[in-house]
Amino acid sequence: MAEVQEKVEEKVKEPREPLFSKKNRKLITDPLTDNNPITIQVLGICSALAITAQLKPSIVMAISVVFVLGVGNVVISLMRNIIPSKIRIIVQLVVVAALVIIVDQVLKAFAYELSKQLSVFIGLIITNCIIMGRFEAFALGNGPWKSFLDGIGNAAGYGVILIIVAFFRELLGSGTLFGAKVLGDPIEKTGLYAYGYENNGFMVLAPMALITVGIIIWIQRSRNKELIEDN
Amino acid sequence: MALNTDKNSYTIIFSVLMVAVVGSLLAFTAKTLEKNIKANKRTEKQQNILFAMGVTDQDDPNEFVPAEKADELFNQYVGENQYIVMGSTAEKTTKAFEIDVKKENDKIKNDPTYERKMPLFVGEKEGKKYYIVPMRGNGLWDAIWGYISLGSDFKYISGAFFDHKGETPGLGANITEAYFEQDFIGESILDENGNYVGVEVKKGNADPKNERKEDNAVDALAGATITGNGVTAMVKKGIKMYMPYFESIK
After folding, report:
1. Rounded to an integer, what distance in angstroms lies between the CA atom of residue A53 and that of residue A83?
2. Cβ(A165)–Cβ(A48) under 8 Å?
3. Which residues contact B12 (CB under 8 A, 6 or more apart)?
4. Average pLDDT value for chain B
5. pLDDT at B130 over 80
6. Distance between CA A151 and CA A42 in Å, rounded?
7. Which residue ranges traverse the bilayer (chain A) (predicted)?
């Protein structure tokens, strides 16, 4: 982060804005709440369905997307004046693909079991609409520091929803959290299972991720009426 | 900035430079991490082989042995008891571990006269011998592979491990689940006349507790017909190649 700050200070010579001005802070906080990429913009749904059956892969996915989107936004933003507009989508794809391959290789080298669990989904970060969306909508028109904040903010907003969904799906679907049997043992019939509780097997299937996301959207919109589109 | 980014020549120069920079960056990353990734794959293979002979995590029999112990346990249970089988003969060599079943499959596809080198691992646990056979086949979307261990009677399966590259999560991907793998344990690969038939992943088998060990079939997974058929074909073909050798040492 220190590196990024230095670069910003060199570039922005005009009326200097504090690094964490109100506007800049909004770049991070907005996507976490009222402009969440998943629940408001409904982007990145595919991966939210695929990997949220358990908490651990969701958290790793969230961290990977924070890294890819944060760094990617800065790279695109630094190049925004020299990218030929005719091939800008290709350039964006190359940047995100290169970053994703690096994440994949690092995971394979240092967290092999996790990389096996995430398998194709790491590769699928490339197709995550949030990433291309932020490159195109934000990084191409803003400085690196702002783009960095925007990238982190949006990726975190995505990650928060991922983790919430995964929490409920793992808890209700398998009765575990991070693989620990928090509700007792379903086979030995201990804990909650002694009273006839059963895991809801449907929760581990993809459709329930959509329904969980739907419930989050519902709660969010019922608390903040401004988010409801009129039609 | 006075840069005219719309010119064709600029676009071409930019893309060429971009490819060169990104290409070398990725090559550099791959080269630096190569060693770690290779070591991880080696550990995984050791864990797989140990799993197929029933050497698992102390606390959870459905999990692999811990990665840091894989090397030690592999040496303890299998060690140098590795063979390269060719037809009905075998050569004892630790090179067996390095043989890539996929490459051997490819070689025989390109050249039918090629004599395939088949790795065989012989583990010993509590006085019993486990003959562990690696195999590889096709699922619905991509490759599937596994290890099956046979007892020294060469009739009953004593352990199985399956993995896949890209089967559907929740359906075909369930071949990696312990409840599916355990179904193979104790299954006979010979029919009542002693002829080799393999083990079929069978729909409507209706034997959830897997009590019929002589029927050469295990219950199929719901929603995973093609993957199941892939497992059937892989197991049948995989073990069959070793049968001439097994017959000779029986």
Report:
1. 39
2. yes
3. none
4. 88
5. yes
6. 17
7. 59-78, 90-112, 118-135, 147-168, 201-219
Q: Give the minimum alpha-carbon distance from A21 to chain B in angstroms, rounded to a whole number.
A: 28
Sheet holding B157-164, edge to edge: B89-92, B82-86, B118-125, B128-138, B143-150, B157-164
pLDDT at B105: 87
Residues on chain B touching A90 (C-beta within 8 angstroms):
15
Classify residue B130 as exposed, middle or buried by CB count within 10 Å of its CB (0-12, 13-18, 19+). Answer: buried
Residue type, B180: F
**Is pLDDT above 70 for B2?**
no
What is the total residue count of chain B? 250
Cβ contact A203:A172 at 8 Å: yes
**Alpha-carbon gap: A16 to the closest alpha carbon of chain B (Å):** 21
A31 vs B148, higher pLDDT: B148
Mean pLDDT of the residues in chain A:
82
Of B136, B162, B133, B166, nearest to B150 by C-alpha is: B133
ipTM value, please give it: 0.73
**Tokens (6 digits) for A188:** 């030995």
CA atoms within 13 A on the CB side of A90: 13
